[in-house]
Request: fold
Amino acid sequence: MEQNNKLSMSRRHFVGVASILGASLGLAACGQSEQAAPEKKPEEAKEKSAEATKPAEEKKEGAGLQDEYDLVVVGAGGAGLSTAISAFDAGVKNICVLEKMGVVGGNSNFATSGMNASETKYQKEQGIEDSNVLFADETFKGGHELGNRELVDFMCQHSAGAIDWLAENGIVLDNLTQTGGMSVKRCHRPTDGAAVGGVLIKGLKAAMEKRSLPIFDEHKVTKLVKEGDSVNGLEVETKEGKKTIKAKAIVLAAGGLGSNQELIKKYRPDLEGYVSTNHAGATGDGYVLGEEAGAELIQMDQIQIHPTVEQSSAKLIGEALRGSGGILVNKEAKRFTNEMDTRDKVSAAELKQPEKIVYLIFDQKVYDANKAAAKYEKAGITKKGTDLADLAKQLELDPTTLQATVDAYNEVAGGKADEFGRTTGLAQLDFGTAYAIKVAPGIHHAMGGIKINDKNQALDKDNNPIKGFYAAGEVTGGIHGGNRIGGNAVCDIIVFGKNTGEQVAEFLKA
Ligand SMILES: Cc1cc2nc3c(=O)[nH]c(=O)nc-3n(C[C@H](O)[C@H](O)[C@H](O)COP(=O)(O)OP(=O)(O)OC[C@H]3O[C@@H](n4cnc5c(N)ncnc54)[C@H](O)[C@@H]3O)c2cc1C
Reply:
């Protein structure tokens, strides 16, 4: 036992070191350069984990994994970390977060374009008129009215509060852009236009460290223990072996399933073989654990494909590049869709193009407004021309047609009606240096999942809350319906992560 404790103690401290390094090395590098598709590149994923675990020899004494907690959070992504922080601030003291990977942050690390929110102080300062009702209407409509309207309303009404809460924790998202399916600028990102995910996770980890809240990485939860009607424990697999721990409340925040081809095949056989933008740990464990513990899974066939994924690397090319003026052209050098339409519609339009070949074209202004653009270039997936004709030559597109396409688009950006109906994210393209990335759809987001209520309690098939069992983030279902709007997942994980922590505190007080 003593031996076990020593092993655990070392492990706990090692986690702290790994986490800090993750933030300064791995996470900053990954999150902002959006290294994705580990499913297709297991070696790369392993290397990333190895990099984060390098400083193991620097172990010092620290607290080990205890036998009992008030709150255990499963998954150290944005939803899990927000839950732990808000629970602590609401008075819950004995908390731990368990993470199966060697790095902290999950898919949240890779979030690119930003976080949607309405009626925020930043929108007001910048003269952007928005309302929670408009945000909710566009979210619900964008999701084909399949979402749970009460949860959608809850998310939108609490979105400005979530932006303020992040700012209080040192994460300032005051640079506004637009993604497909929104009529006003409500996608919030870091001041310098950096990808949101790296900044978010770095800030949330700092907030965890400030409160001395432990994260145990390489701790995989394999079972939720149920006694009677309550979930009150979990089984954990660690390098040192298996352990069962008790918890008064458990929050599943284990993310999505984009890296699990078996589950993709089970729920959406038509998507078999698509590349995935997700990190290696997005294997859908949460759905299996939740279902075994009696939670109902809903809308599991609602898996989003994202229209701008570079296929050789499976890197997601952020929607903000279209939101700041970028256009899509086919092999005939022609536009074919409203680039700012919802992801399902743009993906469907791409799949109808000759040879399914599509390029995202943008100028230096778009490049400069989106820090991720430099990362794409560094990764070798961007073509760069000295001017538009040079770019056309490299892409083997007809230069005259491409020029005519850009001229026509520039007229739309200047106020003329667009034959494809684009009215947002319009900015005239000025070539000069010209850029292109070849894109196609890839698996991106699980919109279905564990059924919850607005207290984030996991519900059984009769809609009864399962005592002690909560869920937050991508593992939950029913918010995004049949299509998630870009920027709404980060809103979801922060609003509902924060809410979950507060609800758990209420539950424990009672
Ligand atoms: C490339 C990319 C770009 C994106 N860009 C945006 C964007 O700009 N805006 C937006 O709103 N959304 C974006 N999204 C979606 C968004 O990032 C995710 O939906 C969201 O971050 C999920 O957060 P989460 O906390 O629920 O899950 P995650 O961040 O994935 O965290 C879940 C964690 O749980 C861990 N875990 C899983 N199973 C277990 C287990 N059995 N035991 C212990 N731990 C476990 C995982 O390893 C992971 O670390 C993007 C997603 C990707 C992949």
